Amino acid sequence: MTTAAAHTPVAVIGGGQAGLSVSWYLSRAGIDHVVLEADTPVHAWTDSRWDNFTLVTPNWHCRLPGYVYDGPDPDGFMTRDEVVDWLSGWLSTFEAPVRPHTRVTRLRHGAERGFELTLQTDAGEQTLACEHAVIATGGYPVPVVPPFAGALSPAICQIHSEQYRNADQLPDGAVLVVGTGQSGTQIAEDLHLAGRQVHLAVGNAPRVARFYRGRDCMTWLSDMGLYDKPAAEYPGGKAAIEKTNHYVTGRDGGRDIDLRRFATEGMKLYGTLTDGHGSSLRFAPTLRRALDHADSVYNSICADIDAHIARTGADAPPPSRYVPVWQPETEPTALDLTAEQVNTIVWAIGYRPDYRWIEASAFDGGGRPMQNRGVTTVPGLSFVGLPWMHTWGSGRFLGIDRDARHVAAAIIDSENGKVRRSALRTPRYAETA
C-alpha cells in the first residue's frame, strides 16, 4: 500500500550516534525534522560487535552533544556492553524524533520541494518530501568478500567480521582470519585466546603502541593536535588518510597487538590472500614486508612522540623502540584448508560504500561523497559520520560532536534564513487614523 506524500523540512537518514547528534542540535534550535532509522537507534553496537569487543580509543575520547564520559576510568577502554549503557544514558537526556523500522530505499534530488524519499515501513511503502537530507548511514556499510569466495568448498563456513561474536559460534577446528585491520587482528586474538588454532592472512595495515613513555599513544597524539588537523593539511595527503587504521586493542586494560608474538605462540601467518578454489588457497609472498612495515610505523609514531616531548619539555620516561621477537623463516604461499583442518574463514577485509539509492550528483568515480565537512554542492544534501569527513577524529566519538554541529549549523542557518526572507516579503500596511 502506498500512502500520500508527507513533508518535513529536514530528514536525517540513520539513527546512529552521528545522525542523532545532528538531531540534538536541530532540536535545540527548534528545527522541525525526523530521524529515519531502518532498525532501532544505535543498534549497531549490539548487532555488529563481538562479545569481547572493546573500544580502541580511551574513554575520555567519548563525547557527544551535551554528554561526555564521566566514569571512573577515563584512560580505560569501555567494553561493548559499557558503550551500549553509555549511549543509553545519552539518549535519555533528549527526545529525538526517531521513526524506527523505517528504511529509506530511494532518495531523489530535484523534486519540487528538494528531495523525495521512498520509505519502506511495517505499514508499507510511503513517500516523504524534504528540503534537507542528512545521510548518516555510516561510512561504508557493505561488507567486502573477495570474488573467489564462492568458489571455495561449501564445507567451509564463511562469515564476515561483522557477523563474528565468539569462538563458540564457529564449527570446531582451525580458523583462517583474512585481514589485519583493527577488526581482523582483534578477532584473531580473541580466537587465539580461546584456544583455537588461528591462521592469519596479513595485510598492509600499520600498528601503533598502546602505551608509550607513560601514557596512551592516542592521548599523546591528541596533545599533538593530530585528531584536529583537517584532512587537507594532514601529513602525507590523500594517500595517508585512505590507509587502514593502525591496529591495537583496548582489551584487558589495553595492550599492543604484536603478530610476531602470536607467531611464537603458534598462530600461523601468511601474506596477502590472492586466490582460492575448493580447499586450496594461494598467498602472495608479502608477509615479511607487511610485518616490517607495521613495525616501522609503530616506531615512527614513537619517534614523533619523542619529538613532541622534546619540544614541550613534558616529563616522561625514557624512549624505546620495538625490536622484532620473530621473523618468518619462509614465505608461505599456499594453504590446504582440509589438510590443516580449517573449517571457518572470517573475512575481515573491510567494507565498501553503496549509495546507489541516492539519486543526486554528489559522488566521485569511486562512489564516495564529494563533500566539505559534510556539506555537498547539492543544495540541502549533507553527510555525517564518515571517516576523515573533516579530521582524523571524524567518524569516531572524539569528532562526531564537532562534525554534527557543523552540518546542523548549515541547516539551521538555511532554515532561519527562510524565516527572515519570509518576514521581509510580508506586506506592511500603514496605520490608518
TrEMBL record:
Gene3D superfamilies reported for this sequence = FAD/NAD(P)-binding domain
Reply yes or no: does the keyword Oxidoreductase apply. yes
Coiled-coil segments, which residues?
none
Matching InterPro entries: Auxin_biosynth/cation_transpt, CHP04046_FMN-dependent, FAD/NAD-bd_sf
Sorted keywords for this record are: Oxidoreductase
GO MF, one annotated term: flavin adenine dinucleotide binding
Instruction: Tell whether Oxidoreductase is among the UniProt keywords.
Output: yes
Q: Which branch of life, at top level?
A: Bacteria
Q: What is this protein called?
A: Putative flavoprotein involved in K+ transport [Gordonia sp. KTR9]
Question: Which organism is this protein's natural source?
Answer: Mycolicibacterium parafortuitum
